[in-house]
Every structure is written in C-alpha cells, then in structure tokens.
Amino acid sequence: MSDTSGQTPHYPFSPPGALEPPQEWAPLREGCPVASIRLASGDESVLLTRYADVRQLLSDPRFTHHLDSADAANITANESGGVFGSGGTNMGADTHRQWRQLIGKAFTAKRVSAMQPGIEAMAEHLVDEMIKQGSPADLAGALGFPLPVWVICDLLGVPDSDRDRFSYWSDTMLSLTRFTQVEIDAAQAEFDDYLRAHVAAKRATPGDDLISELISLVGALDGRMTEEIMMLTAKGLLVAGHETTSNMIGKMVAMLLADRGRWEQLLADRSLIRLAVEESLRYDANPGFGIPRYISEEIQVDDITVPAGTTVVCNLAAANRDERQFDHAADMDLTRSPNPHLAFGAGPYACLGQALARTELQTVLKVLLDRLPTLELAVPVADLARREGLIVGGLRQVPVRW
User: Fold this and answer.
1) What is the Cα Rg of the chain in Å?
2) Mean predicted confidence (pLDDT) in 376-380
3) 3-state DSSP assignment of residue 105
4) What is the DSSP string of 218-284?
5) What's the CATH code of the domain at 304?
6) Which residues does the annotated region (Disordered) include (predicted)?
7) Considering its fold, how many domains does the chain have in total?
8) What is the rounded average pLDDT of the residues 15-44?
9) Does residue 302 fall inside a structural domain?
10) Which of 58, 204, 283, 310 lies at a C-alpha separation of 20 to 30 Å from 124?
11) Higher model confidence: residue 348 or residue 323?
C-alpha cells in the first residue's frame, strides 16, 4: 500500500476534461491496486481501482459505508451531516438487511413499471417547455434536474414546488469541500424541520405515498424501526432519489452527443436504448467520490493484507474501466452485452433505487430521440464543466441546440 513517490496523493483526482477519466486510474489499476490516498479531511485512506477487488469488498456483508468507528477516516472537509459520517442509522447488520427489505418494497419492478407512464408524460412536458423556451438550452437545468425531483417527490408524497430547497439541502449533505460546517448545520436543521412537519401532516392524513408507508413501519423490526430511522430514511431517499439520477441524465446525454455517431446509432435503432443506458453508466468517468467501507476485520485484497481499522474507498468508475473485466474498456460501445458494471454498487448494499433510475434514464433517452432527433451539444466538449466540491459527480450545465 506504499506509494513510491514518497507523497500520498490527494483524492479525488482531477481529470483532464469533464467526460474523461483521471490519468491516475490506469497506472493504479496496473501497478498499485491497493493505494494509499489522502482525503479532503486530511485523513489517509486506501483506494481500490480494480473490478474484482471492488466487487469483492462491496459484496462482503461485514462492511458498511457508515464510518462510525473512532478510527474511521473522515471523508469530507466538514464531516458532520455528511452521508458517510456518524449521522448514519447505526443499525446492526441483521437489522440493516431487514430494513432494506422493507424499503425495497417501494422500488419493486411492478411499482416502478406502474410509474413509467407518468415519468414519460413528465419528460414530454419538460421537453415541451424546453422547446418553447427555444434553442440553445441547458438540458441539465431544463430536464435533467426537474424530472428526477418530480419522480421522487411524487413517490414520497412531497410537493415538488419545494424542489429548489431540496436541491440545496441535498448538496449540503453531499458536500466534500463546497460548504462550511455552519452552512451545512443550518441547512440540515431546515431539512429536519421541513420533514418533521411533513411527517406530522401525513400522520394526520395518510396517503398512497412512501412517507405514509414509512410512518406505518415505525415500531417494526421488533421496535428497531424507530422514528429517527424513519426520518433518516425519508431524508436519504429525497437526496439519493434525485441527485445522482439528475446528474446522470446530463452526463449520459453529453456522452452520447460528444461523438455524433453514437446519437446517430440510437436514432437508427431504438432497441439499443437499454444497452446505451447501461454503457453510459459503465463509461461514466465522473460519478463522484466512490463508496467507502470501514474494515472492521483484517482482510486480503489482491494478495495485500488490509488491517482492521482501515477505511477503504471503492472507485466504481475506475473498476468499470478495468480491461480484465471489459473488452475495449476505454471505448463506449452501445451494443455491449452483457455489461456487469458496478455503477449501482454490488452485494447486500447495492443501490435500492436502481430500477427506478434505469427507468428514468431509458425514458428520457427515448423521449429525446423521438422529440429532438437533431439534438447536439451547443459548446465544444472541452468547454463542459464539472460540478465541483460534492461527493457526487455531474456537469454544471449541458448546453444543447436542435
């Protein structure tokens, strides 16, 4: 785990361009698959970049991303209120597994399938509005952000008129270096007050929504599904339910338009939409920080002993570019199948909302191909700018014309 330069590199790495992978990934995969890194907090951690190693660790049920232990690394410059900090639910492994089964019922294929027509109608509406405003437009702001916010608000029974506030509160929870601790604490207090009021209203008048369902589960799991856990769950779903998908819509469209041949390929064959979404997820070089794991017991990774007490960061995007797993991994291939990428994680803690995210991405792509076949980037790819200072990746804007 030593690094030969004598200096521990700072992580996350800076890429050469908004859609390009950092130059460090390939050499680390080849020569130093278990690498020491320094985080925004100043703490040291270990980085995994190979597919097999990342999958192995994510699939191990002993280790979670809640970094509650005293010797766990702080991920961000301001840890309090962050998604990986000590504000986690602090459940035991068995309770967490049961909790996931309960929450997972909200994201069954049947429920997501029933939501698809509404998602498509909203995507059509947002594209109508974008067309009305005229070309050029910022696709991220006009479609990428509002659609997933509407979807998760509809699912939770929360008015999406509050979406700008959700966005700000969400960003503070996902801050790596962007916000001060004072800003984070103030935003999270507002978020908590908002949710408490909303939960009280739903308790008085339940509806056919996920927060009403969560309220009915309080006291489940032999009393371990507490009011606090229910509130944290609602909060987490609001954040996770829109932030990553919002960013992915913009990145996916940018990747597909960066090489016009990709867009033309989809125009010629709509049956490739599902595969194109999966390949966009695999090819995404800007997903954000990755997934940390606190190692509570000594383990072997790639013939290297990782001692107990280590915080390990699994870089999903670097693993998704591993030539050992994917032929021509550096190429975007819209016909790639099978495509066992790790964009949603793996194992017992894989993303609960992945079926919903896939449905949103496929629906957006279908609507854009149908409505705006002449869509193209309105700026050179080199001018696209990343969102900085957050745990999740994304583009500030995706300027398009048609």
Assistant:
1) 21
2) 98
3) helix
4) TTTTTTTS-HHHHHHHHHHHHHHHHHHHHHHHHHHHHHHHHSHHHHHHHHH-GGGHHHHHHHHHHH-
5) 1.10.630.10
6) 1-25
7) 1
8) 96
9) yes
10) 283
11) 323
